[in-house]
Description:
By secondary structure, this protein is an alpha+beta fold. The radius of gyration is 30 Å and the shape is elongated. The protein has 24 helices and 15 strands. The chain has helices at residues 10-21, 31-38, 53-63, 112-117, 144-150, 159-165, 168-180, 186-194, 204-215, 221-230, 233-236, 238-241, 257-271, 275-283, 288-291, 305-320, 326-337, 340-345, 351-361, 365-374, 381-405, 416-423, 429-443, 451-464, and strands spanning 26-29, 44-49, 70-73, 78-83, 86-92, 94-97, 106-109, 127-129, 138-139, 152-153, 183-184, 248-249, 252-253, 293-295, 299-301.
Amino acid sequence: xxxxxxxxxPVFHHVGNVADSLSRPCYVVGxxxxxxxxxRHSKDIDFVTVGxxxxxxxxxxxxxxxxxxxxxxxxxxxxxxxxxxxxxEFVGARRESYSRDxxxxxxxxxxxxxxxxxxxFTINAMAICVNAAEFGELIDPFDGLADLDDQLIxxxxxxxxxxxxxxxxxxxxxRFATQLGFSIVPETFDAIARNADxxxxxSRERIADELMKIMASPMPSIGWELLAKCxxxxxxLPELDAMRGVETVNGRGHKDNFYHTLQVVDNVARKSKNVWxxxxxxxxxxAKPVTKxxxxxxxWTFHNHNFIGARMIPRIFRDMRLPMNEKMKYxxxxxxxxxxxxxxxxxxxxDSAVRRMIFDAADDIDDLMTLCEADITSKNExxxxxxxxxxxxxxxxxxxxxxxxxxxxxxxxxxxEEIMEIFGLRPCREVGTIKExxxxxxxxxxxxxxxxxxxxxMHDEARRLGLSPVSDTL
Length: 474
């Protein structure tokens, strides 16, 4: 098959001409070729040459004009050339062999067939020639194009060898299935299950990279369900694996918290591209397995699972090598607060409760409401409608109170520094007590969020504490 029209761009002709001048066969390979057929745009282009890829890269850079140079990584035998918004990666064709305890291969020079056969999946094992004589010719030794048409993920060679050699490929199989909506062929999936424990030699950082791509996919649940079914999940996130299944006592069971969670994640994904809100959805019930109790009167209970789950988040993020920064704190806050709107709609929606929720969630209040609405997965249509109607009421009240009381960006009308100055105090418990009294009074609607009212309450509370101002200026 000739695909000259698919790569009829100056960069491919330029690289091909340089390769011809060096008498080197040269091919576009991997993901760029796959994405041509998927009609996906990519700015990263991988080239394989038979011989030194570094030599071709340096020659390409030298002919692209002033300011363009090849960045060489000799330890890996690769070089990169950046041109405008394109990144061109060059490597020599190679074959690889692996030791049992490492995914770092022993690399030797090889043929194009050697290079394509070492690749992870057939859909990534295609190449297009850029040399002038065969420009646009497709090389597809493992019928990757047919697998693309059939939307299948399979390995070019024995899947047990492929996954044992480089266990990260198991994560990549599931990630591609999730991103593309493809199916993993049974023999490939069975090999993942047989080799699942090999994932232990892969760094947590590399696993986290694949999980982030799964979470950014249109339906993240596809990946998480596959991870569970093949046995990888228990190795990479045992806390989530523990949520699987239903326990029954006296004929009463609880919902499968794992599949409920996946539905919540997909519900959030339909409403938001915020990947950290999706992580919050994944972890919102993470403490249910450790808080699950049977009560003869109440049935199954999960008391305080939101608070205990929030305390679990830093350790989980640390173990998974997810960022220990404001992203982690955001997820922790969402997990802790996710029961608050539900508690509101199950009770009377008071101004005070809504103010406190806005105060605690601050700028993340809209995300919190999105998460809580996504958490409604009941098959009872009347129940779903009742909850959504009540959430709409909460949202209306939020808007009214925010316009009136400015709680979302709440700043106390009287600062701790002013309290210390007025009463001649150093930092102490009394200062905190006065500040807390003012804050609670505003949130409970006892006083408006205004300076004059706050100052009056400050003096009342100070007198109760036996404090007198040292100045009459305020």
